[in-house]
Amino acid sequence: MSYLQTQGITGNRIPSNGMYVGTNNGNGKENSWKLVFGDEARKINPLHDVNVGRNNLITSAIQNDDWSAYNEFEAKQHPAWYEKVDGTYQPNKVYYGNLIESKIRALKEAQAENDQEKIEIWSKSLEEAIEDFNNAPGIVPYVVGLNHNEQTAAANGVPEPGDDYFDSKWNSNIVASQGKFEQNMWYDNAIFAEDKELKQHVETLVAGTFPTSKEFNDQVQVANEVKTPKAVEVAEKVEPEQVTLAEQEETKATEDDISLQSIFLHNLKFAFKPNLNVVEELYK
């Protein structure tokens, strides 16, 4: 049974350009589901267009047995998980390392339940993922259960991570979990960098509900323009070298304000990652 069926949603497959949202009867409990499209969906999820684009590319890739366009799209969404080889993007060892971790967890759960059928399924799936890992391009990451020590790496037939990994930008939690080298806001998504009109349209739709780039820029501008009267008054009375010190302290305070605002907005971020189980459920 699929997730949607467990939630009481039955019938045809979800359209690639739609999304289901729960509605409630006033007591805070969801009791029905509604299929929404376009601007109605964007108001709920500003990255709805990213999901639509991904779904369409998955459908096309399955039909044509060609994942090159999908990989190119995902490389922009998760640049740390892909490498460009001979002009096309391919999932790298970091991508497969993350996938292998999830398969190892699933296998351990099956073993704990002594479910022989699941153990066989996940064991085979893990073997295939390890083969893909070895064939994939890119740096060798540190993966618990795969190559976290010499014995485990040898048992799985994979290399150990080297100093080049531990000293690199790939050695980061956000790289493993989200396939990105740095955190970013929803409006910084690659899809909006390529379509400014779409970005402006979506920001207009969600203003007041989600943070927007205009709000952030306005806050930065205000922070840059703020000058306390006390700081100005003191600056008029001190020596030139002391004026420089006062300016430095004021600049630092302003930068700290901006940093705090950035952290606050980043905590409201949207982050999406591929879920192969969902893909299999929708398209099997």
Describe this structure in words.
- Helix 3 (48-64) packs antiparallel against helix 4 (68-77), helix 5 (93-112) runs antiparallel to helix 6 and helix 12 (213-225) runs antiparallel to helix 14 (240-266).
- The protein is globular, with a radius of gyration of 24 Å.
- The protein is 58% helix and 8% strand.
- The chain is mostly helical and 284 residues long.
- The chain has a two-stranded antiparallel ribbon with strand order 1-2.
Salient structural properties:
disordered N terminus; two-stranded antiparallel sheet; mainly alpha; 8% strand; disordered C terminus; 15 helices; 284 residues; globular
Secondary-structure blueprint of this entry?
Elements (H helix, E strand, L loop, with lengths): L2 H4 L11 E7 L5 E8 H7 L3 H17 L3 H10 L4 E4 L2 E4 L1 H20 L3 H20 L14 H7 L6 H4 L6 H6 L11 H5 L1 H11 L6 H13 L3 H7 L4 H27 L9 H8 L1
Antiparallel strand pairs: 1-2, 3-4
Coarse morphology: globular
Unreliable stretches = 1-11, 231-284
The tally of strands reads: 4
Query: What structural category characterises the helix and strand content?
Result: mainly alpha
Query: What does the largest sheet look like?
Result: 2 strands, antiparallel
* Overall pLDDT score: 80
How many alpha or pi helices? 15
Termini Cα gap: 13 Å
Radius of gyration over alpha carbons? 24 Å
Succession of helices and strands:
HEEHHHEEHHHHHHHHHHH
DSSP strand (E) fraction? 5-15%
Strand ordering within the main sheet: 1-2
**Share of helix, binned:** 55-70%
Keywords: Coiled coil
Region (Disordered): 1-25
Coiled coil: 100-132
Biased composition (Polar residues): 1-15
